Amino acid sequence: MNIARAQEIISRFNQHKILVVGDILLDHYINGVVDRINPEAPVPILKVIGERQETGGAGNVAKNLSSLGAQTALVSVVGDDDMAREVDRAAAREGYEPILIRDKSRSTIRKQRYLVGEHHLLRVDYENTANIQGAIQDQVIAAIRQKFQGNLDAVIVSDYAKGVVNQSVAEMILDEAGQNNILVGADIKPSRAQYFTGATFVAPNIKEAHEFLGLNHLEQSIEPGELARMVYMKMCAD
């Protein structure tokens, strides 16, 4: 694809309605400086000079689509907690519609990063990765189905294997999209790749594609074009 074609595609983004489905999280960045070592233990002391919060995971896809001009909504699951409200506020700043199902049995996924300049000092993850089920799954499916009634142009699945994209959710997306001739793109973890046989496209990274094929990318590196063909053939065969 040349630059002119890319610009043409981007210029038409504001004509499209796109639904994102996947695992949303809150990225909390804590920036500071280190000028001494803790006398209580051999670790640096971070003097905080600034903080910011953004949505991450599937939120990255939604805010990028929104920044390109697309009318974007995101269906995901969060906890029934203060962090869920922070996710709502961050999504509002980023320009997309968050449709967040509250699950009292889990906490909102949060990744807290401590940085010195651009360098990570430490990352702390708060997460529950169990697959959704029961009433929460039903609410997610209902929310997605409702969005299909609104003249969608595409569904993008952004899966981080944190529990939102289970087989039932995947089957419902493919079924509805097939009936309505809607594009489905899936950026999924290898453990869930088979859920999306029949999608318009899947987009594993190089490491994930090797893993899906049962290969170690450090020991056996395959050219990207051939790697894509092998992934396609395996999904068709399975």
Describe the 3D structure.
The protein is of the alpha/beta class and 238 residues long. The protein is built from 7 helices and 10 strands. A 6-stranded parallel sheet has the order 5-4-1-8-9-10, with helices on both faces. It has a 4-stranded mixed sheet with strand order 3-2-6-7. It is globular. It starts with a helix and ends with a helix. The model has no long low-confidence stretch (mean pLDDT 93).
Topology at a glance:
Elements: H1 3-11, E1 17-22, E2 24-37, E3 44-57, H2 58-67, E4 71-79, H3 82-94, E5 97-103, E6 110-116, E7 119-126, H4 134-148, E8 154-158, H5 167-180, E9 183-187, E10 201-202, H6 206-212, H7 224-237
Helix pairs in contact: 4-5, 6-7
List keywords for this structure.
238 residues; alpha/beta; four-stranded mixed beta sheet; globular; 10 strands
Query: Roughly how much helix do the residues carry, as a percent range?
Result: 25-40%
Q: How do the strands of the widest beta sheet line up side by side?
A: 5-4-1-8-9-10
Order of helices and strands: HEEEHEHEEEHEHEEHH
Q: Stretches where pLDDT falls below 50 for ≥5 residues?
A: none
Shape: globular
Beta strand count: 10
Indicate the proportion of strand residues: 25-35%
| Residue-averaged pLDDT | 93
